[in-house]
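Reviewer 2 asked us to include a model.

Predict the structure of this chain.
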Amino acid sequence: MVGIKEFGAYLPRRRLQRSVMAEANSWFDKSLKSLSKGERTMCNWDEDSITMGVEAAQDLENLPNKTRAIILASTTLPFAVRQNAGIVAEALNFSEDIRTMDVAGSLRAATTSLVTALDIASAQNGDVLLIASDNRKARAGSQMEMISGDGAAAFVISQDNPGLKFLGSTSINDDFIDHFRASGDDYDYTWEDRWIRQEGWLKTVPKAINMALMKVGVDGSQIDYLIVPCQYGRVAESIAKMCNISPDSVVNTMLGSIGICGTAHPLLMLTSILSKATPGQKILITGFGQGCDALIFEVTTNITNSKPNRGIEGWLNRKVEEKNYEKFLTFNGVINREFGKRAELDRPPALTAQYRNKEGVTGFKGGRCKKCGTIQYPKSIYCVNPNCGAKDTQESYSMSTTPARVKTYTADHLVFSMEPPAYFGLIEFEGGGRMMVEFTDLDPKTFDVGVKTMMHFRIKHLDENRGMRQYFWKASPE
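Predicted model (structure tokens):
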């Protein structure tokens, strides 16, 4: 029996209010006022599809040691020629013999990857970590900008007591171009909404669902949860009726609270209902984009063993309202803001040094002295304990999931920061170990010495001249 064993999610802390977006752009397009209710998730400047993917994976209660493959699905991968899933694997400290793969090119990349992961897990004695993550860029004042959101989801696919048993699936390929983005372009080109609804969603999706139901031998009336990641109102209910599925089974898209998070959205919708799903219930999940995937699962008694660390509800509650629309445009590179002379410093990436120290930089491993037990970062030849000082006694020690507390901090208005001032300081980890860090996602009104923090994988530096981004770990208040 193969299926989904663990599930996790991630939503950026900031929630951009749609009302401020509509107010800024309705002078040109008054129809945007009809979309002004609610809010959307918004990445900080140091977040992207890779960092969100790492966060979603860390939300899993357990990362199995026997994971054999990592699949990263996204339409907004930062690198065209550098395996993005490989960066995620090293940040999560998987062994080097793991298989990694990027999947892109369509908004149904996540559900297509889910089918692939199920095939791999059923054929091999090992688990597959599937991550879907997207932070799509849209033109200022566009409908896509209003309804989109940023987010990621992660699943462990396994034969070992899954909480969701896979019953079967159907995939349809159809080069229906509702929107597209050419290589090298920043923005999607979108076609007319009515045509997309009538010829796309209301034709292809019901066809895929009915084929999957027939293949598995399940009647539509037996489906308890129907996941259709569609931004158009009432379309999912219409699809349900066309497939003899109760409209009451349609899962909330969370459009009003997070937006449509691209590739990750069907998996985020799935995570939103797993905490209340009960054994025996059947779930049908769809992915739409140049065709359709339809997968059917049955909830097992093992679902009670699948609990994320924070979960979608936790991320929904961990939010800060953002009303600065210009900040959103700046963080997404939509406007070319003047950053001043300090931003002009050209720092070529030291790729050799980064590779040499990747265990500490990407994997965030420090050292623990085998003689006295002292923990330190970075790992070094000598123990930093003045009462020990032993040589060559350091064993690698993962610190990425260890809580810490702020010991000292400063707000620097002189150094360049995408969101001044830049916050730096000293933190002390639970169990021992101190280090100087950069802080992110903080509220100046509540941030102070003694605040509990966690480490988060983020962009450290953007090298616009070479198209390079370097990653490191930053501390953020919980």
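The longest strand covers residues 452-463. The two ends are 38 Å apart (CA to CA). We have added this to the supplementary material.
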